[in-house]
Protein: ERAP1_C domain-containing protein
Organism: Taenia asiatica
Amino acid sequence: MNTIMEAVSSGTVPERDRITLLDDQFALARAGFLRLDEVLQFCRAFVKETRHRVWLVLSDGLAQVRTLLEEATYPVGDEVVFPEASN
């Protein structure tokens, strides 16, 4: 995954592929196959992103994460722990 992240950061991955990679990361996390912290780490590769369409996918995915966190209820004092990825 580091190689892909480096390619995204350097701008060598075409726009449509960056969009697909982002969308897939969020979909895998929603399905429980990828840990959310891994997805958020992947999102860091897009820090220099300049294309509007890529930012739309990124912001939509992060908005879904925010909604999940806002709707969840956690007893006082408990840590927020996301489910482990499925094997």
